[in-house]
Amino acid sequence: MPDLGYFVFLVADGAMAGSIYALVALAFVVVYKASRMMNFAVGEWTMLGARTAAAASYTFGLGLGGAVAAGCAGLVALALVFNRVVLRPLMGSSLLSLIMLTLGVGIFMRGAATVVFAGLPGRIASPFPVEPLVVGGVPLSIEKIVAAAFATVCIVALSWFFHGSRTGLALRAVASDQQVALAVGINLQRHFAITWALVGVLSVLAGTLWSFVSGGGFGIELLGLKVFPIVILGGLDSLPGTIIGAFVVGILESLVAGYVDPVVGGGFSHVASYLVLIATLFVRPWGFFGRPDVARV
Fold first, then answer.
1. CA-closest candidate to residue 219, choices 26, 50, 83
2. What share of the chain has pLDDT > 70, as a percent?
3. Considering the domain boundaries, does residue 251 fall inside one?
């Protein structure tokens, strides 16, 4: 493949991966925006979403749409129970306690999924052709194209939800100041439940799409490791910044994997985004699109 064609291929491949990264990162950001809580188990939620949809497809013979719908119903139910039974009693606890809670929940999810989904396939069978689509001499995976297109639609829909609906406006008010939101009549517990329901839906969609392009399985929880450079680069409280950060990380990893990994022996693409993250923290600790916390003294 010519050098320019190879470069275009790497950029396109990275952008398609970035669109799915964005879904996972948004599942992290919506929780942070609503409750200032960092969900470090986002990778495990994504893995569980993919496994639940795959199990529904295999057990009940559902097609892709039915399996995803069943997975969303299951993960939304789990998210609501988690919010009601686990999180609500701990509201007001220290940030460290909530971080340790999400880490513990992630470990529990891994162990429980190993038992519950034993003997079941790790992914939904792909309905898309295996042969790549050649565009301008650049071969592109049809699975990745479809996954990226659907992920983009989901991102646009979520952005509209936050900026164009009454519920989204209420969630933004909760994110801005919970006490003021409570004072004007916004039900905080109801909107926390909506936030975690969104996490359940995003987990199924992102996990299923990623299983198409990567083969899926229990390795999906490692997708959560991609989230932290993305949300810090974009800004923890910025949805547009998170989306842009996801595409930047996806393209960066693809370019490094294509040009640097063959030289150094492989593996550098997995840490490149973290090196960029460290450099960014020196310049803008709150991210390129985030806002610094300002306190009156």
1. 50
2. 95
3. no
